[in-house]
Amino acid sequence: MILTICHWYCRVYLFISVIKQKRMQERVTIVFGAPEDFGFSDSIKNELTVIGYDVIDLSIINSDFKYPNFSTRINNFFRKTILKDKKYKSKIRSEVITKNLIKELNKYDKIRYALFIRPDLFPLDFFKRIKNKIDTIVAYQWDGMDRYVNVTDYIPYFNHFYAFDPKDLEANTNITGCTNFYFSSKIPQLKLIQNNTKAFTINSFQNDKMIPLIEIKKTLEDVSFPINFIIYSKIKKETKEAQSLGFETRSSMTPYQENLEQVLDSSLLIDVQIQSQSGLSFRIFESIGYDKKLITTNKQVANYEFYDPNNMLIWDNQSTQEFLNFYNAPYRPLSQEIKEKYALDNWIKFVLKLKEFSPISLPKLS
Question: 3-state class of 345 per DSSP?
């Protein structure tokens, strides 16, 4: 009798173990769309794949517009040149892209989840037509909403609409705050590199960024601190100005993966925000995930739970000695709980409302 009970107990235990293992192996499928600039969409898609998701990537389809035929191209030329109709091409593009995106989605059965970063880059009509095809469709605006006047038109077509800038929450009560994130799959790579004493930043040429960049550059150079400061611009005048100030320049965008290699290989990261924004950039979350010292011009970082003055220096044109005091102070490691909270693994669970996530929120502006 006892042997029979033990036999059945073992069979039930084995059955439960198999079910648990099968569930652990199940991969969630996500429809995904994001800007292709800097290779961001590819980087995020690859990271999602690494951490266990099957990704249906619509980013390339959205950016690949071709006129459906020669007559449409001629018609656009006539309307734009003769009738001064500058909206015709946008209308045609919306129709063609929407058709191609829906054609791609129709290859799949009912889809449970979809994530679109910068949804306003996609045709609005596309979201109107797919709302009932996807169970949970969410959007994330990783740029200030006031810079894109049409983005609020998209909000009703998503189950959840997230924004990274606290000031956008004050103007829109029907959106939710959420930070940026970092890629945790890169952490093991830190053990394989030297982590050189070096400061790294890369920025597009913008007037409101240049003054603090020049200040920080001078302070670091005054103490012979190695730097890798890169300015991106396609405009020759801006390139010449940046070069005259001693910056390295590039006329083509650096892929995010290459950018990330520089982050991992540096001991100090520099983050200079656009003055119109208060949300935290990716650079700040890279500093959290990869245990890097950070100089940032974003004063709002002091309102976040991970802020530590030993690790993050809020730039206010400090002296060389003040910089050295900061840099030479021991880095205070963050808790594993905090680091995991801001990794893409938890971020995607939070925005899709999957089980077992740590909630992410934005503080009120100070």
Answer: helix
pLDDT value for 45? 94
pLDDT at 4: 46
- Nearest-angstrom CA–CA distance, 343 and 319: 34
Angle, helices 70-81/88-105, rounded to nearest 10 degrees: 150
| Sequence ranges of the domains in the chain | 28-181+343-352, 184-341
Q: Residue 185 corresponds to which tokens in the numbers above?
A: 């799959």
Tokens for 183, please give them.
Answer: 């890629």
pLDDT for 253 beyond 70: yes
Q: What is the pLDDT of residues 44-99, one digit of tens each?
A: 999 999 999 999 999 988 665 454 544 555 554 445 555 444 555 566 677 888 99
Q: Helix, strand or coil for residue 116?
A: strand
- Dist CA 196 CA 89 (whole Å): 49
**d(Cα 59, Cα 47) in Å, to the nearest integer?**
15
Q: Identify the three-state secondary structure at position 160.
A: strand
Higher pLDDT, 129 or 79: 129
- Neighbour count for residue 170 (Cβ, 10 Å): 10
- 300-314 pLDDT, tens digit each: 999 999 999 999 999
Q: Domain 28-181+343-352: give its CATH code.
A: 3.40.50
233 token code pair: 């611009």
Q: Which of 141, 250, 255 is nearest to 204 (CA)?
A: 250
Strand pairing class (53-57; 134-141): unpaired
Interior CA angle at 202 toward 197 and 206, to 5°? 140
Q: Please state the CATH superfamily assignment of the domain spanning residues 184-341 in this structure.
A: NAD(P)-binding Rossmann-like Domain (3.40.50.720)
- Residue holding tokens 């003769």? 82
The secondary structure element, H or E, covering residue 328 is: helix 320-328
Main-chain dihedrals φ then ψ at residue 316, nearest 5 degrees: -145, 45
Provide the total of helices (H) and of strands (E) in the chain, helices listed first: 14, 12
